[in-house]
Amino acid sequence: MERTRRLANTILAAVWTEDECGVRARYLIELGLIGAVGVREEGGEVPATRARLRDTRSMPPALPSRALLVCLVLVGCAVAEFGPRVPSAPALRARELTERQVRLRDAFGLADADFARPSPLVKRGNGLRADSMRTLRARAAETPEWSLAESAHYAFLFAGNDEPFLRRLVEETESARALVREYFSHPELDPVPVHTAPHVVRCAKDAELYHSYGGPPGGHGYWSPLAGELVVYRERADGDATTWHALRGLVFLAYASELWGTCELPAWFALGHAEYFAGFVERGEALLASPPPERIELVSSPNAAAWSQWMALDARAALVPVPELLSKDRPDVACRVEWQASAWALVWHLRALEREAPEASPSRVLARWVAEWPLDGDAQRATRIAFAGIDLEALDRAVVERIRALGAPPRPGSRR
What is the mean pLDDT of residues 214-227? Predict the structure, then answer.
């Protein structure tokens, strides 16, 4: 209200002297605007304005031009006070850093402000890439069983002397990254400048070495943002299919860290996309090419492992409904398998909608979410905006219908 009064005074001062007509007109403007916002308290601004009007003598006959000017001023002030507002970006809240964020801040040389919104989690510094590679070469020289290689975005350590496999590891990793970048572009990171330390892809020669290196039991790989390492192992039993399956999902998590690593992605988005990208397979012609192409062409396919888990959970009525998936940023540890399969199904369905009906509102959910979340790192706010107007119960039924329609999943690790 004070802003409107100042505006009215400024406009009237330009066209009127402080005579009783100007004062009375200004009070009329105030009275109209105060009434518009519904101020009715006794002793408030409305009674005070009316009292000022009673204290003035009756307004002299107004000229038509002066009356018109009063109307114009009144309309202008009303528009300024109650007109449409342009939505502004949400104000960033000061948050106390978690223990994990403190470790990341110190390890990457970041400031607390870098954690106010999702920001890249990469080490930067003059000549940092060269320094990192020198350190890795020194370590590889001390342990001859580890072979070292380098690509545009990664350094590679493989426990073995299989050069063809190491070349394939480089090709698979770069191809997976190029695939993820098609969905989540970030021109500033491609190509990676020399002042950015590359992530390390460490591949153990077998599961035993992988677990001795710290790999969790039952898993095929993990991503460590603090160390900047993707760790997998070679699974010869299925022709390395399990290795590439795990690698593609981890490449997404590492790439997401390059984009938004200072804030943790909600589980449905992180797990769902990791499983989504893990399901991509090589196009048949690429498998038969000799020599293999520099970039392996990957095509979309349902993730056989997540698909099998989903079918088993569906048979037991143990799936996590979509509303519950979206309501929590992190799942209970005991329910990780249920969340992983259910999140994959949701992302698979939403990505399929993007191809089938790109202009429909549900097909834009993920794009809206990715546009909103980086503003302040508030996953629930981004989810409310992205899924606004969408019946979550109906979406849950549509996800179930789509996955059931896929039929029986292939054996995990097989190429479809």
Answer: 89
Just give the CATH number of 119-262.
3.40.30.160
- Amino acid symbol at 343: A
Tell me which long-range contacts 270-273 makes (C-beta under 8 A, separation of at least 24): 271/339, 271/340, 271/343, 271/344, 272/343, 272/344, 272/346, 272/347, 272/348, 273/347
Angstrom distances, CA of residue 400 to CA of 197, 271, 345, 360, 406: 42, 18, 8, 20, 10
For residues 364 and 57, what is the distance between their CA atoms, to the nearest angstrom?
Answer: 63
* DSSP tag of 124: B
Token pair for residue 283? 């196009």
pLDDT (tens digit, 9 = 90+) per residue, 31-56?
A: 444 443 343 334 444 444 445 444 44
From-to residues of CATH 3.40.30.160 in the chain = 119-262
Phi and psi, residue 148, nearest 5°: -115, 140
Q: Mind listing the pLDDT tens digit for each residue in 95-123?
A: 688 888 898 888 888 888 888 888 888 88
Determine how β-strand 229-233 pairs with β-strand 199-204. Answer: parallel
The candidate with the shortest Cα–Cα distance to 122, out of 135, 107, 101, is 107
Residues 6+ apart with CB under 8 A from 392: 322, 323, 326
Place of tokens 């370590």: 139
